[in-house]
Every structure is written in C-alpha cells, then in structure tokens.
C-alpha cells in the first residue's frame, strides 16, 4: 500500500511535465485567424523560437497557462524574439468564442485553430494544455503537459539555453 500512495503522490506532483526532446515538430495543418490553412510544422521553421500551446475555452488550466504567459510575453519577445502561438482545439462552432476569449483576456498571441483535430490526432493527445517550445528550425526543445505555478520559470530556463 505505501508504494501506491507514493505513486499517487508522484503523479500529483508531476501534474505539469516538461520533457526534453530533440525532434522536429509533427506534421499538422491548422487554420489561422483568417481561416487559411497553415502547415504548422513549416510555420515553426521561421527562424525565431515559438511556444505552441493547445488550449480550449472550457479548460481552466489552459486559461491559467495563457494568463501566465501574458505576464512574460512582451519581455520574452524582446529578449528571445519569442512568438507565442495558441491553437484552440474547440469544436468549429466555438472558434468565435475562443477568439473573443483571447481578446477579452488580452492574450495578444498568434491565434490558430485545430478545426479538424489534426494536431491532436497526429500526436494522439488526450489532454490539454499541451505546449511545445520549438527553436527557430522547428526542433522541439521541450514539451509541457499541464500547468503549474513554476511553468514560466521552467520555460525561461529553456529559452536562456538557446
């Protein structure tokens, strides 16, 4: 029984996981703010680092993540030339609500939408928030699953290493 308690505690403490990786961003097509298709795996190769964050309007931890990033976005843009890209995984009928929520909350990020659940399906993802820190060549530097209060500090350590 003590092993079970320790396992449960470990899972709880790892609610937010940052994994290191050195692979290319997966192929997926999403829609941009104008409703145009964007090959996200090509978009991330623009030369500047990016945070790609999957979120939904109904996801409380997603809103906490996006609000936390709002506090550092301008500073990181200046220091690291970082672009934050949010990819809503809301159903297509909720895209306008997602855009309005981003505007209301002051999330001045690049807005995209996974209208066909392409990205979620290609990666076999089952939970959000799910975020990637990607270098300017499209290589994944870290993967973040969930949200915790030290999320931004963990990300900045990765950004400083670029």
Distance between the termini: 44 Å
Strand arrangement in the largest pleated sheet: 1-8-7-4-5-6-2-3
State the helicity in percent bands. Answer: 25-40%
Number of helices: 7
Amount of beta strand: 15-25%
Q: How many structural domains can be distinguished in the coordinates?
A: 1
What is the CATH C level class, in words? Alpha Beta
| Mean pLDDT figure | 85
Low-confidence stretches: 4-21
Number of strands: 8
Note the run of SSEs as H and E.
HEEEHEHHEHEHEEH
CATH topology: Glutaredoxin
Based on the structure given, which CATH architecture is correct?
3-Layer(aba) Sandwich
Gyration radius (Cα, Å) is 16 Å
Structural class: alpha+beta
Main pleated sheet:
8 strands, mixed
CATH superfamily: Glutaredoxin
What overall form do the CA principal axes indicate? Answer: globular
Strands, helices and their partners?
Layout: H1 2-13, E1 17-20, E2 29-32, E3 37-39, H2 40-43, E4 50-55, H3 60-70, H4 73-80, E5 83-88, H5 95-104, E6 110-113, H6 118-122, E7 130-134, E8 140-145, H7 151-160
Parallel strand pairs: 4-5, 5-6
Antiparallel strand pairs: 1-8, 2-3, 2-6, 4-7, 7-8
In short:
The chain is α+β, with helices and mostly antiparallel strands and 162 residues long. The protein has helices spanning 2-13, 40-43, 60-70, 73-80, 95-104, 118-122, 151-160, and strands at 17-20, 29-32, 37-39, 50-55, 83-88, 110-113, 130-134, 140-145.
């Amino acid at each position: 029984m003590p092993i079970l308690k320790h396992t449960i505690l470990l899972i709880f403490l790892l609610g937010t996981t940052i994994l290191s990786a050195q692979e290319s961003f997966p192929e997926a097509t999403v829609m941009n703010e104008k409703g145009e298709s964007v090959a996200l795996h090509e978009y991330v190769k623009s030369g500047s680092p990016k945070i790609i964050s999957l979120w939904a309007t109904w996801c409380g931890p997603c809103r906490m993540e996006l609000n936390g990033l709002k506090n550092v976005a301008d500073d990181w843009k200046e220091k690291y030339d970082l672009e934050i890209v949010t990819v809503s995984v809301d159903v297509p009928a909720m895209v306008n609500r997602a855009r309005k929520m981003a505007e209301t909350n002051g999330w001045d990020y690049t807005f995209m939408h996974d209208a066909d659940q392409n990205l979620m399906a290609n990666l076999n993802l089952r939970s959000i928030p799910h975020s990637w820190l990607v270098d300017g060549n499209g290589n994944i530097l870290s993967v973040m699953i969930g949200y915790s209060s030290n999320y931004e500090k963990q990300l900045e350590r990765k950004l400083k290493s670029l």
